[in-house]
Amino acid sequence: MAIKLKPLVAVTLLTAALTSGYAQDAVRPDIGKPLQAAGELIKAGKYKEALAKVRDADAVPNKNASESYTIERMRIAAASGAGDADTAGKSFEALAATGKLAQADKLRMLESLAGTAYRAKDYAKTMQWGQRYFKEGGTSGTVRTLLIQSQYLGGDFAGAARELQVEITASEKAGQAPAEDRLKLLANATQRMNDTNAYVWAVEKLVTYYPQKQYWTDLLGRLQRKPNFSDRLALDTYRLSLATGATSAAADYMEMVQLAVQAGSLNEAQQAMDKGFAAGVLGVGPEAERHKRLKDLVAKRLAESKAGQAQALTDAKAAKDGGELLAIGMDQVYGGQAKAGLELMQQGIAKGTKRPDDAKLHLAIAQLVAGDHAKSAATFRTVQGNDGTADLARLWALYARKK
Predict the structure, then answer these.
(1) CA-to-CA separations, 362 to 111, 119, 121, 368, in angstroms, rounded
(2) Which residues make Cβ contacts (< 8 Å) with residue 62, sequence separation at least 6?
(3) C-alpha of 381 from chain center
């Protein structure tokens, strides 16, 4: 994954802060003169030449504490600009040890040190300075980016994932969508860790805020590969795939249509078939004739269903189990009879079914199809089960939120 570094301003800020302040302390002329020259060289972007002038000042014997402090302030500014991370780090430690370093200057220095180390591709040092920056109370998003990217590039995927989760959670608490590149980086890091749960968490965030086809395809594929995922939920998975735009293969359209026919959801089967043809996926290629035969079969079954609808409804109401009422009701919802269909589904649930969580899942999907997003979200939250039903309901609820 390509990683982009935001422009750093720490060196510029550090230079301005440190070079403007050195003359405030009393220094002898033989120290002050080379430091003055160093300051001018730094402003001109000639950092290595500035370091040489700082060394001239440092070579003066019998320096007092104030002179040494002023020299180190100038040295860290020059070394940061020159990309000399080791020298800048030593100067910082010397300054911090005096106890005279203002907190604002300390944070600016630490930010600059992290940036200098990162540009030198010294990711261990970047992590060291970045972590110290936050320990000192820093809040810069740029430094957090440096820290995360150094952890990632340095192979500390667990550390990068922890920092990213903190950042993502903070964005959500602030009412902001986490940046897509941060979520993708988290997904990549957790995948390298082989942490499936954390990876799925990241991809679920991606489909929540950036509901693109590739994210839904990945998420639904992983769901179906879970050991406990029941085959009977295949149609409900295809439904979500179609709704999110993740369905693209002719075989998937065909499989969904056939499963819908078997479930008695003939209006839905016809709609899926029509979408496949409209997308240019069905009705073309070597399987075109097979696609047409299935389309004709769906039309025939739908006509037969409408002709026998009254009797089917009578039989469903007389049955001890509410399963048929649920199936007929859902078919009516897909057929545009939302109010009547939802009422039948509620009657079916009240009568009782062999799989209550499946029934609630189907009711929630029907409510969403009918346009009642609030009720569908509430119903999705009631779905339980460890056979994939609850997992699928959670994904449907994510989709419903975007609707």
Answers:
(1) 54, 54, 53, 10
(2) none
(3) 22
| Inter-residue contact 75 to 94 (CB < 8 Å) | no
CA-nearest of 229, 233, 294, 293 to 261 is 294
Q: Of 131, 185, 132, which Cα lies nearest the Cα of 161?
A: 185
| This prediction's pTM | 0.78
Phi-psi region of 367 (alpha: psi -120 to 50; beta: other; left: phi over 0): alpha
Cα separation, 47 vs 45, whole angstroms: 6
How many CA atoms within 13 Å lie on the side-chain side of 289? 1
Gap between the terminal Cα atoms of the chain: 30
DSSP letters for 79-91 = HHHHT-HHHHHHH
| pLDDT tens digit sequence for 326-348 | 999 999 999 999 999 999 999 99
Residues 306-313: contacts with CB under 8 Å, at least 24 apart: 313/344
pLDDT in tens, 182-216: 999 999 999 999 998 899 999 999 999 999 999 99
Residue 256 Ramachandran class (φ > 0 left, ψ -120 to 50 alpha, else beta):
alpha
* Rounded Cα distance, 351 and 319, in Å: 9
Sign of torsion, CA 156 158 162 167? positive
Residue 59 CB coordination number (10 Å): 11
HSE (CB half, 13 Å, CA atoms) of 30? 6
Distance (Å, rounded) from C-alpha 88 to C-alpha 129?
A: 11
Contact between residue 76 and residue 38 where contact means Cβ atoms under 8 Å apart? no
**pLDDT tens string 75-91:** 999 998 888 989 999 99
Structural domains in the chain? 10-146 (1.25.40), 228-402 (no CATH)
Q: Is the dihedral of CA 297, 300, 306, 312 positive or negative?
A: negative
Structure tokens at 297: 């079969």
**147: number of CA atoms within 13 Å, CB side?**
27
Between the alpha carbon of residue 269 and those of residues 129, 145, 247, 259, the distances in Å are 60, 48, 14, 8
Q: Which amino acid is at 156?
A: D
Q: What letter would DSSP give residue 43?
A: H
